[in-house]
Amino acid sequence: LVILGAGGLVGARLVTKLVDQQEFHVSPTQTVPLKQIVLFDISDKGIPQRSKSDPRFVVHLGDLTDKATVLKALDPTGFTHVTTIHLAALLSGYSEENFDLGMKINLLGTINVMDCVREVSKTLGAPQIYLYTSTDYVACYNEWNQTHPVTEESFRLSPVSYGCQKACCELLVCDYTRKGFLDGRVGRLSAVIGRPGFSNSISYPYTGIFTQPLEGKNYDVPLPMEVPYPCSSLVNNCDGLLFLASAVDGTALGHNRVVQLPAKSFTLSQIWTAAQAVAKEENIPIGQIQCVNASSGATTVKEINVCPVVDCGKAQALGLPMHVDLHDIISDYVHVHIKKDRPDCV
After folding, report:
1. Strand 30-33 and strand 23-27: pairing?
2. Which of 117, 167, 244, 323 is deepest in the core (most CB within 10 A)?
């Protein structure tokens, strides 16, 4: 199993789950021993310490766009199956600021990875599973998508470079699969709220409105409080991605290999209310919020241009876990990132 982007938010949580996993599905009915887990990233900064005590984990550091580096990480020698979960990406705000770097990492890097998986598939004599992680930001922000739930079939024409790059990759995964080069699946994620620290993405206020006050800081909210925004759970995403990469029969996906992972739409008001409730339950001092003009926000994209509702029916039909609960998302953040660092939280 190869995790590309193992030091990121989702990657690091996946690693902690895999520590206790000894077998891995390569089809709905077949499991094999999980002999090696390759953790690939540009640096080892975010890779969990727990993995370092397990000899199955091997860390590879390098450039996603370098073919020799990626082929080394995917080396099939001694294995019958190589499953790749591709999480690595340059996030939306950074891709908007630096178009060339976004193209290099998000589009050309992904093509490089797929070409490497294609070579591994040829070596092993069968298409190998490749799970690409995408975003609901691929959808066109048009009148139809703003007034109807976005599905995997909805028109793609993102208003930002990041979404356009991801949309290109979604299409290529489908075509590489059609050609028999790999067994591709696309896990399309909505905003993963609960990221520690700042991230330059349009969704950050939907995280910052609870992470910053729960850390005892005041937070300036640069977006309208009553606009619904599709949000997802880190825990459920990890479970869903592992399920999609292993226990789903690729033929059940059809030609369109994209699956929107479970998400629910929340407003900033709903998130703030839930954050206050969790703080009270957990006996945590909480900061305050105030609404400010969007122009003063720290993110590059300063107005909401993400479609308000996504349809997760395909994920449900395939049997993916569907648990997206706002209270549980915030509680998870508290227990993972707050209570271990603050002596005033009891």
Report:
1. antiparallel
2. 117
